[in-house]
Amino acid sequence: MFKKTLAAALVLGLASTGAQAADWDVSGYIQGNIGQSKAEKPSFVKREAQSLPGTTKSDSKDTAYKLIVGLQLNPYVALEAQYVDLGKANYKIRSAGNENKIRTSTKGLGANLVGTLPIESFTLFAKAGLHNMETKLSDKTNLGYSASGTTRQWTPSYGIGASYEFVENLAAVVEYERYHKAADDKAWAGYTKERVSVKHDIDMLSAGIRYKF
User: Fold this and answer.
1) Residue 176, SS3 per DSSP
2) What pLDDT band is residue 19 in, cutting at 50, 70 and 90?
3) Which of 156, 149, 71, 77 is closest to 115 using CA atoms?
4) Which pLDDT belongs to residue 10?
5) In the chain, what are the domains?
6) Are 65 and 34 contacting, i.e. CB atoms less than 8 angstroms apart?
7) 168 torsion bin: left (phi>0), alpha (psi -120 to 50), beta (else)
């Protein structure tokens, strides 16, 4: 339901602001961000950790980046298309001499509807988006079993941030985003070759440069 509402909001935002575009000085921009992602443990990893009495080590932070092409329709509304790579997360479960190594990686394309509030050289913004994300899952054990799977899912996102135009048409940007249920689906994994849930949230904190044209 939330994904349908978000998709409708993106369409309505485009329709309502497109009608006003002729009255404003419409501009475009390109932007590149790099930062850090932090992934929540997928449902599959949580289940494995609970069922196996042992220890779980998580390395759920990784370098993440994104590339954006945006259209500032008026001083308060922008639309963005973006590619984002949220990096990898690694989990290691040890129990009674057995060891499971699980890895997830997520990336994809999407669009954002952005509300902006210009304050002289600063701009505050909030955004909501919808992205088609590909999540890959691999599961290996020290007993020689291995499996992998891929799932592609429409993923809603939201975020906040700020930019500062330090020279004309060039701005520094910082932002925080959450990609909600980045893989709300099932993939083949586990040494039993079963379909398992890889649903999880991923946060991204990043900084970048925006060029307006």
Assistant:
1) strand
2) very low
3) 77
4) 53
5) 2-212 (2.40.160.20)
6) yes
7) beta
Residue 53, SS3 per DSSP: coil
Q: Please give the Cα distance from 193 to 74 (Å, whole number).
A: 52
* CB 81 within 8 Å of CB 117: no
- Rounded-to-integer distance, Cα 18 and Cα 163, Å: 24
Average of per-residue pLDDT across 102-114: 95
Q: pLDDT-based confidence at 151, cuts 50/70/90?
A: confident
DSSP string across 65-127: EEEEEEEEEETTEEEEEEEEEEEEEEEEEEETTEEEEEEEEEEEEEEEEEEEEEETTEEEEEE
Name the β-bridge partners of 115: 77, 126
pLDDT of amino acid 21: 46
List b or e across 147-169, with b for residues whose CB sees 16 or more CB atoms inside 10 angstroms.
bebebebbbbbebebebebeeee
Tokens encoding 62: 């990784």
pLDDT band at residue 55, thresholds of 50, 70 and 90? confident
CA distance 173 to 175: 7
Yes or no: say if 42 and 202 are a contact pair by the CB < 8 Å rule: no
Q: Look up residue 132 and give its amino acid.
A: N
- Cα angle 75, 77, 83 (rounded to 5 degrees) comes to 125
What's the chain's average pLDDT?
85
